Amino acid sequence: MRKGEISRAGWAALLHLLAAAVSVGAQAQSPANDSGGIRSNGSYLHSYLKEPKPETPCPPNIDAIYRADVIVTGTDMRQRPWGFAQTLRTVLVKSSGDPRLKDDPRAEQLAAQADSLVACFDYVDMMAGTPLHDEQGTYDRPHKLTVTFDPAKIDAILAQFGDKPWRGERPVVVPVLLVHGPKPPAYVLSAENPAGAEQRGAFATAAGEFGLEARIPSDSELTAWGAAADHFPSGPPPSRAGEAIVAGTLDWNEALPGWVGTWHLRWHGADHDWSISGVNYDAAFRNIVQGVMLLASGRGSPD
Question: pLDDT means per 10 residues in the chain (303 residues)?
Fold first, then answer.
């Protein structure tokens, strides 16, 4: 090969790089405003090769009810607008205490301009400890996008909706659940039972999504309450101060297929019953938390 010529492998690498750059440029034809009001130019170097950093420093002391996160692919503009829209819906729910706002048509319209409401955002590489594969960049990796919205702007939106921020005490959700899974035996969800390990994590995630905390009862607490797989009380034990104890059953139905959940909560002296069916247990647990949120915030009832 003469001096100045490019090898076949070199041409292949160059063509691959050019194709990637063209693809990125096409994806960036409709850039959204970021939190600093600057539009990304979608360039290959800017979008893919730089370390992900927040575009604007986050103002101090913003309440967590104005913050949410979502998993996206990469840190460029492919999924950032979608991530902003998803986290905005979550923040509208967390800040108001009304889970119905997530699917409200007004929230859907606002989601298209979610970038104009952002105070700051940042990314965390979910595979930071995993080496890159051949021809793989950080643009292919899952990242947690955390978005903090401007409290004044969110409060103004809630006011337009005829609502207001939920500043009151938020109860800890305590599930007392008898679980009949796809395979026997049945069990009561507890902090120690190995059978419920994944469900414990899913419940904590569901509570956090709505700005609440969860506490799974211990085996000793369940025994004191008389809650066991072969003897399950018809109603929940009395709620302690700062807690909302929800009793119920979670049954796997192969015909649906999916889980069927029935819940009971005594809240401020009144009994409330609601249910959900044909869902995975993540959705079932969100349904419990949504019911507690409606009652605790005074926005409604799950019945």
Answer: 40 35 35 34 33 66 95 92 96 96 92 94 86 59 95 97 93 97 95 95 96 96 94 82 95 96 94 97 97 96 93
Tokens 């409401």: give the residue.
Answer: 117
Chain mean position to CA 152: 22
Reply yes or no: is the peptide bond before residue 257 cis, omega within 30 of 0. Answer: yes
Report whether 246 contacts 274 (CB < 8 A): no
Domains and CATH numbers, the chain: 32-41+49-160 (no CATH), 172-297 (3.40.50)
Mind listing the pLDDT tens digit for each residue in 55-111?
A: 568 889 999 999 999 999 999 899 999 999 999 999 999 999 999 999 999 999 999
Q: What is the full DSSP assignment across 26-73?
A: HHTSSPPB-TTSPBP---HIIIIISPP--SSPPPTT--GGGEEEEEEE
CA distance 263 to 185: 21
Instruction: Tell me phi and psi for residue 178, to 5 degrees.
Output: -95, 120
| Global confidence as pTM | 0.77
What is the C-alpha to C-alpha distance for residues 99 and 1, in angstroms, rounded to an integer? 67
Tokens encoding 285? 């647990």
